[in-house]
Specification:
This is HIRAN domain-containing protein. This protein is an alpha+beta fold. It has 4 helices and 6 strands. The protein starts with 12 loop residues before the first strand and ends in a 5-residue tail after the last helix.
């Protein structure tokens, strides 16, 4: 079926699921969300071999780190569109939680197909931003190597990847 024959959903903002789980490589989705801001691009990746849902759609950040999945009910509608090549632009619409009394973060994304105006994202609330800043400080204090221990390996891997792909530095 051609992409134009499939019906796009009227819904534009989607609540994600699975943000509290770790990724298969052991990375914490909560840690990834801690460094993710509303308005940033997101990417959808079909996961048809997912044992729980053949319509599964993973949501990734700009660094190709998995944030969560689209809920099964929504994935059942979106998967045929993605499979047909009808891929919307996605962005982080809102980060929920991340508060002193509700530390677990959730995420919503907004989708816009070609010719559609993207939804305006919801910025972090002041108390969310303050909590996140405190969490980052706390994590840096508990790190034995501090900030440089995270930045230098990331910079090395990025420059190595760019060299390996012949991209200009």
């Amino acid at each position: 079926m051609a992409a134009t024959q499939l019906k796009r959903p009227r819904k534009k903002i989607f609540q994600l699921v699975g943000e509290s789980f770790d990724n298969p490589d052991g990375t914490s989705r909560q840690t990834i969300l801690l460094s993710t801001d509303p308005g940033e691009p997101a990417y959808l990746r079909r996961d048809p071999d997912n044992p729980k849902d053949p319509n599964a759609i993973a949501v990734l950040d700009a660094l190709d780190r998995q944030l969560a999945h689209i809920a099964a009910e929504d994935a059942a509608i979106l998967a045929p569109l993605l499979d047909s090549g009808d891929i919307p632009r996605a962005k982080i619409h809102q980060i929920t939680g991340g508060l002193r009394n509700y530390p677990t973060m959730g995420c919503e994304i907004s989708l816009a197909w070609e010719g559609q105006k993207p939804h305006r994202h919801r910025p972090l609330q002041e108390d969310q931003a303050a909590w996140r800043k405190a969490q980052v400080k706390k994590r840096l204090k508990t790190s034995s190597t501090g900030c440089l221990g995270m930045i230098l390996p990331a910079a090395f891997l990025t420059s190595t990847a760019l060299i390996a792909t012949n991209w200009p530095l």
